[in-house]
Amino acid sequence: MTITNEPITAKAHTNIALVKYWGKADEQLILPTNDSISMTLDHFYSTTSVQFDPVLSTDEIILDGIKLPADGQQRIRQFMDLVRQLAGITTFAHIETSNHVPTTAGLASSASGFAALAGAAAKAAGLNLNRRELSRLARRGSGSATRSIYGGFVQWHAGHDDETSFAEPLEEKVDWPIRMIAIVVSRDEKKVGSRHGMKQSQTSPFFKDWVKQSNADIEPMKTALLKKDINRVGAIAEHNAMCMHATTLSAMPPFTYFNGDTIEAMQLITDLRNNGLNCYYTMDAGPNVKVICLENEVEPILDHLRPVFGDAHLVVAKPGSGLTYL
Ligand code: DP6
After folding, report:
1. How far is the centre of ligand 1, averaged over its atoms, from the C-alpha of 52 (Å)?
2. Residue 166's domain is classified under what CATH number?
3. C-alpha 113 to ligand 1 mean position (Å)
Protein backbone atom coordinates (compact mmCIF):
# COMPACT_ATOMS: atom_id res chain seq x y z
CA MET A 1 0.00 0.00 0.00
CA THR A 2 1.45 3.39 -0.97
CA ILE A 3 0.27 6.66 0.47
CA THR A 4 -0.15 9.38 -2.15
CA ASN A 5 1.86 12.54 -1.42
CA GLU A 6 -0.42 14.79 -3.46
CA PRO A 7 -3.78 15.89 -2.06
CA ILE A 8 -6.61 13.77 -3.50
CA THR A 9 -9.89 15.58 -4.05
CA ALA A 10 -13.24 13.87 -4.43
CA LYS A 11 -16.70 15.27 -5.05
CA ALA A 12 -19.98 13.65 -4.01
CA HIS A 13 -23.57 14.83 -4.22
CA THR A 14 -26.15 14.57 -1.55
CA ASN A 15 -29.16 12.30 -1.89
CA ILE A 16 -32.73 12.44 -0.72
CA ALA A 17 -34.39 9.19 0.29
CA LEU A 18 -37.68 8.20 -1.33
CA VAL A 19 -37.88 5.25 1.08
CA LYS A 20 -36.03 6.34 4.21
CA TYR A 21 -33.30 4.96 6.41
CA TRP A 22 -34.36 5.74 9.97
CA GLY A 23 -33.04 3.31 12.55
CA LYS A 24 -29.96 1.20 13.16
CA ALA A 25 -29.73 -2.54 13.69
CA ASP A 26 -26.05 -2.08 14.60
CA GLU A 27 -24.77 1.30 15.77
CA GLN A 28 -21.10 0.41 15.53
CA LEU A 29 -21.18 -0.83 11.93
CA ILE A 30 -24.07 1.46 10.96
CA LEU A 31 -26.29 -1.34 9.70
CA PRO A 32 -29.82 -0.03 9.05
CA THR A 33 -33.07 -1.63 10.17
CA ASN A 34 -34.38 -1.63 6.57
CA ASP A 35 -33.46 -1.13 2.92
CA SER A 36 -33.79 2.41 1.55
CA ILE A 37 -34.02 4.03 -1.90
CA SER A 38 -32.80 7.51 -2.80
CA MET A 39 -32.25 9.98 -5.59
CA THR A 40 -28.85 11.65 -5.78
CA LEU A 41 -29.22 15.39 -6.47
CA ASP A 42 -27.16 17.49 -8.85
CA HIS A 43 -27.38 20.71 -6.89
CA PHE A 44 -25.97 19.95 -3.46
CA TYR A 45 -22.50 18.48 -3.07
CA SER A 46 -19.32 18.34 -1.01
CA THR A 47 -15.73 18.41 -2.19
CA THR A 48 -13.10 16.96 0.09
CA SER A 49 -9.33 16.77 -0.25
CA VAL A 50 -7.16 14.50 1.82
CA GLN A 51 -3.39 14.60 2.06
CA PHE A 52 -1.50 12.32 4.42
CA ASP A 53 1.49 14.05 5.99
CA PRO A 54 4.08 12.33 8.24
CA VAL A 55 4.78 15.67 9.96
CA LEU A 56 1.31 15.82 11.54
CA SER A 57 0.62 14.55 15.06
CA THR A 58 -3.14 14.57 14.55
CA ASP A 59 -5.65 14.93 11.68
CA GLU A 60 -6.15 18.56 10.69
CA ILE A 61 -9.72 19.17 9.63
CA ILE A 62 -10.90 22.31 7.84
CA LEU A 63 -14.61 22.66 7.11
CA ASP A 64 -15.64 25.50 4.78
CA GLY A 65 -12.37 27.31 5.48
CA ILE A 66 -12.58 27.05 9.28
CA LYS A 67 -10.52 24.71 11.45
CA LEU A 68 -12.96 22.46 13.30
CA PRO A 69 -12.72 22.56 17.10
CA ALA A 70 -11.70 19.28 18.77
CA ASP A 71 -15.23 18.16 19.71
CA GLY A 72 -16.52 18.61 16.14
CA GLN A 73 -13.72 16.41 14.82
CA GLN A 74 -14.58 13.20 16.60
CA ARG A 75 -16.64 11.54 13.85
CA ILE A 76 -14.13 12.40 11.13
CA ARG A 77 -11.17 11.21 13.21
CA GLN A 78 -12.87 7.90 13.93
CA PHE A 79 -13.55 7.52 10.25
CA MET A 80 -9.92 8.31 9.39
CA ASP A 81 -8.79 5.73 11.98
CA LEU A 82 -10.83 3.16 10.09
CA VAL A 83 -9.19 4.16 6.79
CA ARG A 84 -5.74 3.95 8.43
CA GLN A 85 -6.57 0.54 9.83
CA LEU A 86 -7.68 -0.71 6.39
CA ALA A 87 -4.56 0.68 4.75
CA GLY A 88 -2.20 -0.46 7.53
CA ILE A 89 -0.81 3.05 8.08
CA THR A 90 -0.50 5.40 11.06
CA THR A 91 0.01 8.73 9.26
CA PHE A 92 -2.36 11.64 9.94
CA ALA A 93 -3.86 13.82 7.24
CA HIS A 94 -4.90 17.32 6.22
CA ILE A 95 -8.59 17.18 5.36
CA GLU A 96 -10.38 20.05 3.70
CA THR A 97 -14.09 19.96 2.96
CA SER A 98 -16.40 22.47 1.32
CA ASN A 99 -20.09 21.85 1.59
CA HIS A 100 -22.32 23.23 -1.12
CA VAL A 101 -25.29 22.24 1.02
CA PRO A 102 -26.86 24.12 3.94
CA THR A 103 -24.95 22.20 6.64
CA THR A 104 -27.16 20.17 8.98
CA ALA A 105 -30.41 21.83 7.89
CA GLY A 106 -32.01 18.62 6.67
CA LEU A 107 -30.42 18.61 3.24
CA ALA A 108 -28.09 15.81 4.23
CA SER A 109 -24.57 17.26 4.16
CA SER A 110 -23.32 14.19 6.02
CA ALA A 111 -24.27 12.05 3.01
CA SER A 112 -22.22 14.03 0.50
CA GLY A 113 -19.53 14.83 3.10
CA PHE A 114 -18.73 11.26 4.11
CA ALA A 115 -19.08 9.92 0.55
CA ALA A 116 -16.51 12.49 -0.64
CA LEU A 117 -14.28 11.80 2.37
CA ALA A 118 -14.46 8.04 1.81
CA GLY A 119 -13.45 8.49 -1.83
CA ALA A 120 -10.61 10.95 -1.15
CA ALA A 121 -9.23 9.25 1.98
CA ALA A 122 -9.29 5.74 0.50
CA LYS A 123 -7.43 6.83 -2.63
CA ALA A 124 -4.95 9.00 -0.72
CA ALA A 125 -4.21 6.06 1.59
CA GLY A 126 -3.42 3.91 -1.43
CA LEU A 127 -6.48 1.70 -1.03
CA ASN A 128 -7.80 0.53 -4.33
CA LEU A 129 -11.49 0.13 -3.54
CA ASN A 130 -14.27 -0.56 -6.01
CA ARG A 131 -17.55 1.32 -5.73
CA ARG A 132 -19.25 -1.31 -3.61
CA GLU A 133 -16.34 -1.22 -1.17
CA LEU A 134 -16.42 2.59 -1.16
CA SER A 135 -20.13 2.48 -0.45
CA ARG A 136 -19.47 0.19 2.54
CA LEU A 137 -16.69 2.48 3.75
CA ALA A 138 -18.84 5.64 3.39
CA ARG A 139 -21.53 3.85 5.43
CA ARG A 140 -19.19 3.80 8.45
CA GLY A 141 -19.13 7.62 8.40
CA SER A 142 -22.84 8.19 7.95
CA GLY A 143 -25.54 5.79 6.82
CA SER A 144 -26.97 7.98 4.08
CA ALA A 145 -23.45 8.43 2.61
CA THR A 146 -23.61 4.77 1.54
CA ARG A 147 -25.97 5.81 -1.28
CA SER A 148 -24.09 8.97 -2.37
CA ILE A 149 -21.32 6.94 -4.02
CA TYR A 150 -23.75 6.46 -6.93
CA GLY A 151 -25.74 8.83 -9.10
CA GLY A 152 -29.45 8.67 -9.98
CA PHE A 153 -31.71 6.22 -8.17
CA VAL A 154 -29.94 4.07 -5.60
CA GLN A 155 -30.90 1.24 -3.27
CA TRP A 156 -29.09 0.56 0.01
CA HIS A 157 -29.37 -3.11 0.92
CA ALA A 158 -29.65 -3.25 4.70
CA GLY A 159 -27.68 -6.52 4.86
CA HIS A 160 -26.73 -8.20 8.12
CA ASP A 161 -23.01 -7.42 8.47
CA ASP A 162 -20.31 -5.12 7.12
CA GLU A 163 -19.96 -7.02 3.85
CA THR A 164 -23.64 -7.33 3.00
CA SER A 165 -24.69 -3.74 3.79
CA PHE A 166 -23.97 -1.64 0.69
CA ALA A 167 -25.70 0.47 -1.93
CA GLU A 168 -26.24 -0.31 -5.60
CA PRO A 169 -27.48 1.88 -8.42
CA LEU A 170 -30.99 1.19 -9.72
CA GLU A 171 -30.61 3.69 -12.57
CA GLU A 172 -27.47 5.85 -12.64
CA LYS A 173 -28.26 7.99 -15.66
CA VAL A 174 -31.87 8.91 -15.15
CA ASP A 175 -33.75 9.22 -18.42
CA TRP A 176 -36.77 10.93 -16.86
CA PRO A 177 -37.32 14.62 -16.08
CA ILE A 178 -38.04 14.05 -12.37
CA ARG A 179 -37.24 17.06 -10.16
CA MET A 180 -36.98 17.89 -6.49
CA ILE A 181 -37.70 21.42 -5.36
CA ALA A 182 -36.03 22.08 -2.02
CA ILE A 183 -37.97 24.56 0.08
CA VAL A 184 -35.29 25.80 2.45
CA VAL A 185 -37.52 27.06 5.25
CA SER A 186 -34.61 27.11 7.64
CA ARG A 187 -30.89 27.27 7.14
CA ASP A 188 -30.41 27.11 10.89
CA GLU A 189 -28.59 24.23 12.52
CA LYS A 190 -31.12 21.57 13.38
CA LYS A 191 -31.81 20.94 17.04
CA VAL A 192 -31.88 17.14 17.02
CA GLY A 193 -29.21 15.61 14.78
CA SER A 194 -30.25 12.63 12.67
CA ARG A 195 -28.02 10.22 14.61
CA HIS A 196 -29.62 11.11 17.92
CA GLY A 197 -33.10 11.55 16.42
CA MET A 198 -33.23 8.11 14.86
CA LYS A 199 -32.00 6.49 18.06
CA GLN A 200 -34.69 8.26 20.06
CA SER A 201 -37.30 7.24 17.45
CA GLN A 202 -36.47 3.59 18.11
CA THR A 203 -38.29 4.05 21.46
CA SER A 204 -41.57 4.62 19.58
CA PRO A 205 -44.13 1.84 20.01
CA PHE A 206 -44.66 2.19 16.26
CA PHE A 207 -41.01 1.69 15.36
CA LYS A 208 -41.41 -1.95 14.30
CA ASP A 209 -44.36 -0.96 12.12
CA TRP A 210 -42.20 1.72 10.50
CA VAL A 211 -39.60 -0.92 9.59
CA LYS A 212 -42.33 -3.21 8.25
CA GLN A 213 -43.83 -0.41 6.16
CA SER A 214 -40.46 0.63 4.71
CA ASN A 215 -39.63 -2.91 3.70
CA ALA A 216 -43.08 -3.15 2.08
CA ASP A 217 -42.41 0.12 0.17
CA ILE A 218 -39.20 -1.07 -1.53
CA GLU A 219 -40.57 -3.19 -4.40
CA PRO A 220 -43.50 -0.85 -5.25
CA MET A 221 -41.05 2.09 -5.31
CA LYS A 222 -38.68 0.23 -7.65
CA THR A 223 -41.59 -0.62 -9.97
CA ALA A 224 -42.86 2.96 -9.93
CA LEU A 225 -39.37 4.30 -10.78
CA LEU A 226 -39.06 1.77 -13.59
CA LYS A 227 -42.46 2.76 -14.96
CA LYS A 228 -41.63 6.47 -14.53
CA ASP A 229 -44.90 6.86 -12.66
CA ILE A 230 -44.58 10.20 -10.83
CA ASN A 231 -47.84 9.78 -8.94
CA ARG A 232 -46.84 6.38 -7.55
CA VAL A 233 -43.28 7.51 -6.75
CA GLY A 234 -44.61 10.65 -5.06
CA ALA A 235 -47.40 8.94 -3.15
CA ILE A 236 -45.13 6.18 -1.78
CA ALA A 237 -42.36 8.65 -0.88
CA GLU A 238 -44.73 11.07 0.85
CA HIS A 239 -46.40 8.31 2.87
CA ASN A 240 -43.04 6.77 3.76
CA ALA A 241 -41.72 10.13 5.01
CA MET A 242 -44.79 10.68 7.17
CA CYS A 243 -44.45 7.16 8.63
CA MET A 244 -40.86 8.06 9.53
CA HIS A 245 -41.92 11.32 11.17
CA ALA A 246 -44.65 9.47 13.08
CA THR A 247 -41.84 7.68 14.94
CA THR A 248 -40.46 11.03 16.16
CA LEU A 249 -43.87 12.23 17.35
CA SER A 250 -44.41 8.95 19.20
CA ALA A 251 -40.87 8.60 20.61
CA MET A 252 -40.25 8.76 24.36
CA PRO A 253 -39.76 11.67 24.85
CA PRO A 254 -41.55 12.87 21.70
CA PHE A 255 -40.00 15.42 19.36
CA THR A 256 -40.50 16.75 15.85
CA TYR A 257 -38.53 18.21 12.97
CA PHE A 258 -41.56 20.17 11.73
CA ASN A 259 -41.83 23.88 12.31
CA GLY A 260 -44.65 26.22 11.27
CA ASP A 261 -43.18 26.77 7.79
CA THR A 262 -42.88 23.00 7.29
CA ILE A 263 -46.59 22.49 7.95
CA GLU A 264 -47.45 25.42 5.69
CA ALA A 265 -45.33 23.95 2.87
CA MET A 266 -46.87 20.49 3.21
CA GLN A 267 -50.38 21.96 3.19
CA LEU A 268 -49.61 24.06 0.12
CA ILE A 269 -48.28 21.03 -1.79
CA THR A 270 -51.40 19.04 -0.86
CA ASP A 271 -53.61 21.92 -2.07
CA LEU A 272 -51.71 22.18 -5.36
CA ARG A 273 -52.13 18.46 -5.87
CA ASN A 274 -55.84 18.68 -5.18
CA ASN A 275 -55.90 21.36 -7.87
CA GLY A 276 -54.38 19.08 -10.47
CA LEU A 277 -50.58 19.48 -10.16
CA ASN A 278 -48.66 16.23 -9.73
CA CYS A 279 -46.56 17.15 -6.70
CA TYR A 280 -45.70 15.39 -3.44
CA TYR A 281 -43.53 16.24 -0.45
CA THR A 282 -40.86 14.49 1.54
CA MET A 283 -38.89 15.58 4.61
CA ASP A 284 -35.80 14.45 6.47
CA ALA A 285 -34.20 15.25 9.81
CA GLY A 286 -34.82 18.98 9.58
CA PRO A 287 -37.62 21.44 8.81
CA ASN A 288 -36.99 21.75 5.06
CA VAL A 289 -39.44 20.26 2.60
CA LYS A 290 -38.57 18.66 -0.73
CA VAL A 291 -41.18 18.59 -3.48
CA ILE A 292 -41.18 15.67 -5.92
CA CYS A 293 -42.55 16.54 -9.37
CA LEU A 294 -41.79 16.54 -13.09
CA GLU A 295 -39.93 19.28 -14.94
CA ASN A 296 -42.95 20.53 -16.90
CA GLU A 297 -44.75 21.36 -13.64
CA VAL A 298 -41.82 23.04 -11.86
CA GLU A 299 -42.76 26.57 -13.00
CA PRO A 300 -46.46 26.43 -12.03
CA ILE A 301 -45.45 24.95 -8.65
CA LEU A 302 -42.80 27.66 -8.13
CA ASP A 303 -45.39 30.33 -9.00
CA HIS A 304 -47.32 29.22 -5.90
CA LEU A 305 -44.30 28.73 -3.64
CA ARG A 306 -42.50 32.03 -4.40
CA PRO A 307 -45.00 34.42 -2.76
CA VAL A 308 -44.90 32.36 0.45
CA PHE A 309 -41.26 31.30 0.81
CA GLY A 310 -39.36 33.72 -1.46
CA ASP A 311 -37.32 32.87 -4.53
CA ALA A 312 -34.04 32.67 -2.57
CA HIS A 313 -35.42 29.77 -0.50
CA LEU A 314 -36.35 27.57 -3.46
CA VAL A 315 -33.82 25.35 -5.22
CA VAL A 316 -34.71 23.05 -8.10
CA ALA A 317 -32.59 19.90 -8.30
CA LYS A 318 -32.29 17.20 -10.95
CA PRO A 319 -30.88 13.69 -10.59
CA GLY A 320 -27.13 14.06 -10.05
CA SER A 321 -24.03 11.95 -10.53
CA GLY A 322 -22.05 9.70 -8.23
CA LEU A 323 -18.59 10.07 -6.70
CA THR A 324 -15.95 11.65 -8.92
CA TYR A 325 -12.32 12.69 -8.47
CA LEU A 326 -11.28 16.23 -9.35
C1 DP6 B 1 -33.72 11.24 7.49
O2 DP6 B 1 -27.25 9.17 7.46
O3 DP6 B 1 -27.51 11.32 8.76
O4 DP6 B 1 -31.94 11.60 5.97
O5 DP6 B 1 -26.06 7.13 9.87
O6 DP6 B 1 -26.44 8.33 12.01
O7 DP6 B 1 -25.08 9.41 10.20
P8 DP6 B 1 -26.22 8.46 10.53
O9 DP6 B 1 -27.55 9.11 9.97
P10 DP6 B 1 -27.85 9.88 8.60
O11 DP6 B 1 -29.44 9.73 8.56
C12 DP6 B 1 -30.19 10.13 7.46
C13 DP6 B 1 -31.62 9.98 7.75
C14 DP6 B 1 -32.56 10.60 6.73
C15 DP6 B 1 -33.16 9.53 5.83
C16 DP6 B 1 -32.27 8.96 4.74
O17 DP6 B 1 -31.37 9.66 4.24
O18 DP6 B 1 -32.53 7.82 4.35
Report:
1. 28
2. 3.30.230.10
3. 12
What DSSP character marks residue 319?
B
Residues 33 and 103 in one domain: yes
Residues 323/131, Cβ–Cβ less than 8 Å: yes
User: Which residue, of 175, 202, 227, is where some domain finishes?
Assistant: 175
Is the residue at 326 inside a domain?
Answer: no
Structural domain boundaries, residue 269: 178-317
Q: What is the largest CA-CA distance in the chain?
A: 64
For the stretch 61-116, pLDDT in tens is 998 888 887 767 889 999 999 999 999 999 999 999 998 875 444 465 789 999 99
**DSSP string of 104-142, one letter each residue:** TTTS-HHHHHHHHHHHHHHHHTT----HHHHHHHHHHH-
Pocket of ligand 1 (CB under 6 A): 17, 20-22, 30, 36, 108, 110, 142-144, 194-195, 284-285
Number of structural domains in the chain = 2
Residue closest by Cα to atom 1 of ligand 1: 284
pLDDT at residue number 3: 79
- Ligand 1 geometric centre to CA of 142 (Å): 7
Nearest ligand 1 atom to the CA of 142 is 7
- Check whether residue 220 and residue 268 sit in a common domain: yes
Report the alpha-carbon distance of residue 176 to residue 153 in Å, rounded: 11
**239-272: per-residue pLDDT in tens?**
999 999 999 999 999 999 999 999 999 999 999 9
Distance 20 CA to ligand 1 centre (A): 8
pLDDT band at 190 (very low <50, low <70, confident <90, very high): low
